[in-house]
Every structure is written in structure tokens, then in C-alpha cells.
Amino acid sequence: MYGGGNTFEGVKTDSVATEDPVLLAEFEARIARGEKIEPSDWMPQLYRKQLIRMIEQHAHSEIIGALPEGTWITRAPGFKRKMALMAKVQDEVGHGQLLYSAAETLGKSREQMIDDLISGKSKYSNIFNYPTFTWADCCFISWLVDAGAIVNQLANAKGSYGPYCRALERICAEESFHLKYGHHCVIYLAAGTQKQRQLFQEALNRWWPPMMHFFGPSDKISTHTEVLMRWKVKMGTNDEMRNQFLDMYVPKIWELGFTIPDPKLKKNTGTGLWEYTEPDWEEFKRVINGGGPCNQERLEVRRIAEERGKWVREALKSAKTTYVTPLA
Amino acid sequence: MNEGALKELLYKMADDLLILGHRNSEWTGMGPLLEEDIAFSSMAQDKVGQSLALYNILHALGEQAPDTVAFTRHAAQFHNCILVELPNQEYDFSLIRHFLFDTADSLRWEMLTKSTYEPLSLLAKKIKGELRYHTLHANTWMKQLGTATQESISRLQQSLQVVMPYALGIFEPSPNESILLTEGIFEGESALQAKWKTRVEEIVSGTKLHLPDWKTVTPVFGGRLGKHSEHLEPMLNEMSEVFRMDPTAEW
Questions:
Q1: What does the pLDDT look like over A41-59, one tens digit per residue?
Q2: Does residue A1 surpass a pLDDT of 90?
Q3: Which residue of A84, A156, B63, B103 has the fewest CB atoms within a 10 Å radius of its CB?
């Protein structure tokens, strides 16, 4: 589950000027024709770097995203929910595995990516730095965070890098089941007892601001990198993705009789765009940079898991095999 | 058909699978490598699903609905062996438990394909296929980690010593053993244990591990009678935390 909003700050495009102009022109022509770029094809350094950054962040988001929901597997109410949530979170970890493999085709090993995650060098979706206090928080993630991720991932699946696109197609197919599961859970809360409705309303109040942050800073303040759009690395602006999400899901939330905690939220029938209270981007930056309620806990869990599992990974190595960094 | 004896068998099997499935699911996000997260999660789903199938049979025999049975009983009403309720601890502990339990479980289901109680024999035919992957997984890792590094071998060896008395608790004698045998429902725990020992010896002989002398291991019994370790009650409290908020609510 990934919103794609974190990736594109501070891209330096200077290196493009030093690329071979003939190869660059051919590369751009291929992308313009809708062809996919494959691991062994020539590509500009900036393209490789940005893709590694993006796919890696996506992969981290999957495995860190498994934690806030994973803590509810042991508490899921009833067999039906318990089994579905186990399968759902397992899918997320599987997406991580798939995405680390896709990123490895660009020359960075899974081990290096996980080290960078633990050291704080690599980021992941900001939304997972918030706690899941109740079952309803877990339902919010399964429905709406997955919904947001699908909006982003469907767009990215039309991008230019073959391995990432193919991974995303598989991921989106699975996420569509998560969405159904999450929606089903929320419908039961909505149609349930007063306490159940209250649980979800409270979850919605807590999660709405991070959900608005999910797609990244507003276009007014984020860096526009035209070259990444042209190369089909970034497939839409943050505001476009956010608007698409609001368009698809605000009516569904209202339909269930819940109140979204933003009095300014409405669709402008003239422009077709949603209007809303500007999210607090200072909070967003603070959380991305480690100041959120769960940043430390999430990374600590990951670090402990890595440390405790080290002897197992060591025992898988064979003295007869040479280990190399994948394609670079 | 002696329904009491049948229910006792079904309850202990269902409870074993629910509790171990729950423990396996706790590896989600915590595995030594992503592939193991995913594998333990798959086995967790299978086990919880298998327990549900058994609770459904019990429900058809007049017991309460599966959700009620699983999410509202207290520890003393559970009949799982103590082995499955122990916390996951390090991966070597979880792996050894998985190996010893699933070896027994796959043999149990294999034996139950011949049960005269048809709902159980039909279920066994389906589930033994799932168990094939669980034992394949366990045996592959036993072989790999049991022959790889000094650390992996010594960790597995140590866990084998710790887990074995609890593993023998799987076969805690049942007062209904002879009834089940006479009625052809199940060949019994002692027959299962004998087959299990042979299979365990066979797998372990392909590693650098050694089994303790069976005669020196004292089994930890009590689970089948509802006498559990201090670990079960907190686990059940966690499992039913949401469900108990309002057991009449639909979630």
C-alpha cells in the first residue's frame, strides 16, 4: 500500500545533461511510443535512481504497512475476519517481496534496501507512522488506505519500467480484494450497534488527516519534475491522485452515514474538483522526518526482526556460491 | 457411535489447530526473511481454516457455533496440547515446534482418512493435501538449518531438547482411546505416536542433530484435560478482545 507522495522532493536533474544525447533520444522515443524499459536496456542514471527510490519506498511501505494491521490479526473478531485479515496482511508482505525483486533489477540488493530502511535513510508511506488503536482503525486501513494505494498503483502500472509495471498489475489485482474486504468490514460497523458506528467514526476522525497526506504535498508546494513525467516515472500529480480518491470514496463514506472531519469538503461542480481544508503540511514533514507517533516503534520492530533472523539468513548461504549485486 | 468420545477427539484437534494457527500468525511481519513471514502466514491460514472445519462438524453434532466456541471459552475449556500455546520465541523454537507438531498432524489426518465417521474421513482426505506442504516446509528447513552453520545446528539442537517433552504431550492418553479404536473412528494416540517417532527419526537422521533417548523424556501432559500453561489465558484474552466487546454484534 503506497501513496507515492514522498518520492519526488529535491530531484536534481543536472545529470541528464551529461547523458549520451543519441541514447537519451532513443530512450525517450521508446517511452513516447509506449514501450517498456527492461532491466538490461540503457537508461539514464536519473531514471535508474528515481525508480530505485520509488520502488524501494513502495516495498518498504508494504512491509511496514503489514505492522499496524498485523497487530489486529490476533484480535480480529470471529473466524471470517481472522482468516481474511491473515490473508490480506500476507498479501502485503508478498507485495514487498515482489517489489524488492523489481527494485533489485535496477542494481540495489534487498539487504541494502532493508539496511537503508532501518537506518532511516529510505522512507515509506507516512500513514503507517500512525497507531491503530481499535479494530475500526484496522478496517479504515483495509478499506481506505488500500483504496488510496490502488489509485496510485493503477496509475503507476501504466509507467515505463517493465518489472515495476508487471509487479503492480499483480499487486492491484490482489488489492482489489483487500478493498472489498475492508469495505465489507466497514459496512458491518456502519450497520451494527451504536458502539460499532462510534468506533468507525472515531477512526475516521483520526485517520482523515493522514489519509489526505497520503498522496503527498499539494502541487502548489511540491517540486514539479517535468522530466519524470515525460519518462513515465511519475504518472500524475499528487493533487490529481488525491482528487481521484476523493471522487471515488467520499460519496461511499457519506453513503454509510459517517461524517468526514472537514467542514470545507465539497465537490466544485464547475471544475469537477474537490475542495477541502489544506492539510497540515508541516505535520506531514515532521512525521516523514521521524517525528510521528509510531516512527520509532515501526523501525524498531523491523530492526529486531532483522537481527533475530540474521542467523537464519546466514545459514542459507552456500560456500560454493558467489553472491553478486543483481543487474546494475 | 459414541458421541462423547468423538467430540473429545474433534475438540482437541480443533483447539490444537486454532491455537497453533494463531501462534503462526504472530510471525506476520516478524519472520527472519520475507519468504518465511509468508510461509508461516499460509500455514496459519490453513490451520485456522482446518480448526473451523472441525468446529463446524462439532456444531452439526449440537455444539455451539464456531465463533462462540472459539472466542468465548476460557483456557480451562480448551483441550489443545500445551506445545501449541507456548509463545513463539526465536525462529528455531517455532521451527522445531512446527516440525514436530506437523509431522504428527499429517500422520493423524492420514489415519483419519480411514475413519468410520464419514464427515471426518471426508475432511481428512481434503486436509492431508494441505499438510503435505506443511511437512515439506518443515522438513526442508530442518535439513537446511540442521546441517548449515554451527549456530543454526546448535540452536535447533537446543530447541529440540526444550520442545520434545511438550511434543510428547500431543499424544496424551485419552480415556476414550479404546472406544475410538473399537468404533473405527481413530486408531488412537499411541498408534499415532509410534508412527510419529519413526518419521521424526527419519527426518532428523538427515541432519546433524540428534534426538534425545525417548526413554529419558518426560512428556508434559495436562492440556487435553484443560490444564494449561500460564500462556494460554492471555492469548485467548487477546484473541477475543474485540469479539467480547459485544458477542451479539456482527463484525
A1: 999 999 999 999 999 999 9
A2: no
A3: B63
Structure confidence at residue A324 (pLDDT): 67
Q: Report the residue from A185, A195, A309 with minimal CB separation from B245.
A: A195
Q: Where are the alpha helices (DSSP H) in chain A?
A: 21-32, 45-70, 79-104, 110-119, 135-140, 146-156, 162-190, 194-213, 226-230, 238-255, 281-286, 295-316
Q: Tell me if A90 and B28 make a contact (CB, 8 A cut-off).
A: yes
Pick the residue of A100, A113, A312 with the most B CBs within 10 A to test the interface with B by mutation.
A312
**CA–CA dist A236, A198 (Å, integer):** 36
Give the span between the Cα atoms of A212 and A192, in whole angstroms: 27
Residue for grid cell 487477546 = B238
**In which domain, by residue range, is A225 found?**
22-316
Chain-chain contact of A305 with B71 (C-beta, under 8 angstroms): no
User: What is the DSSP code string of B139-151?
Assistant: HHHHHHHTTS-HH
Instruction: Find the Cα–Cα–Cα–Cα dihedral B135, B136, B141, B142, rounded to 10°.
Output: 60
Number of domains comprising chain A: 1
Yes or no, beta carbons of A313 and B42 under 8 Å apart: no
| Structural domain of B102 | 3-245
Residue B114 lies in a domain: yes
Mean of pLDDT over chain B: 97
Whether B110 and B40 have beta carbons less than 8 Å apart is answered as no
- Specify the length of chain A in residues: 328
Question: Is residue A4 domain-resident?
Answer: no
CA distance A122 to A53: 8
Complex prediction ipTM: 0.95
Residue A235: inside a domain, yes or no? yes
**Which residue, chain included where needed, has cell 491473515?**
A86
Distance of CA A257 to the CA centre of its chain: 28
Cross-strand bridge partners of residue A37: A161
Say yes or no to pLDDT of A225 above 80: no
pLDDT digits (tens, 9 = 90+) for A227-240: 889 999 989 899 99
Interface residue of B28, B43, B92, B248 to substitute, partner A, most A CBs within 10 Å: B28
